[in-house]
Here is the input.
Amino acid sequence: MTPHVRQLRVVLNTDDLPAALAFYRDALGLAEREAFSGPDDARVVILDAGRATLELANPAQSAFIADVETGGTPSTPVRLAFEVADTPTVTVALTDASAPLLAAPVRTPWESLNARVTDPEGLHVTVFQELAGSPPADLVGTEVAGLGEEALLARAVQMAQANAASGAEPFGAIAVHDGVVVGVGVNTRDVAVDPTAHAEVEAIRDAARRLGRSDLTGVTVYSSCEPCPVCRTVAAVARVEEVVYAADAALVPAAVSDLPADLCRAVAQYRPEMVRPGLTGLTREQLAAPFTTFLERGASG
Here is the structure.
């Protein structure tokens, strides 16, 4: 179907245009694109908010988002959401501009950092930052029939490489169930300040949310690297069928992961058949590339 709509423009009717400009243009940082004046002191200012999308949510989803972002405070019927580069900084700018704070920045299940304030008209406004190295959500739902394990592992290594290039940890994982990708994850440990946010754990969390169950029997996780004790434990608890990996642990430099060898051996003894190396068709240099990129970024930073 040929799309008819070329632009989404939200029109906010305000009794206090200067206050609205102070909030949206000066504090939030939307660029002024056009401004017009009319009879009887009529004024309109058009601000550039970047890419526009329309999100439609039913009451259950609205309540879920409210629980995640605000601890349950119901949203106004229309809520504006702006993607920003740095949620904490923008939140401070908005509150410094006298915007009431509804919820401080919080990490969401969708790997974003969200905060919520109210604008001068009392409208709820969310600012959200996509966490660095967020996995490719469009991969979810892909049918993997005919791809084979080589292609899935190669994609996991690509995700690890992209994550490392963004400055995050060099690991990626893909969860598959019944021939369909049901979860993706990259390591966001340092970005999210969560020591458990390893790639395989994030892919398992994503799969559980999408499948609506914590028992992931029948799910296979394809990982860019041999899973550590944390990832093995979570996979076992979730009853993941199998974890197939690309790079073996010997390729991981100590500067990237220095987990105690005794711990690794102890955890590996539980369900050893759950984890196995996969066929990748990649050279050892290609498998190690995410680690090289990660260390090079650290050295240059």
User: Anything to note?
Assistant: The mean pLDDT is 87. The longest helix spans residues 148-165. Residues 215 and 238 are 5 Å apart (CA to CA). The chain is about 35% helix and 25% strand.
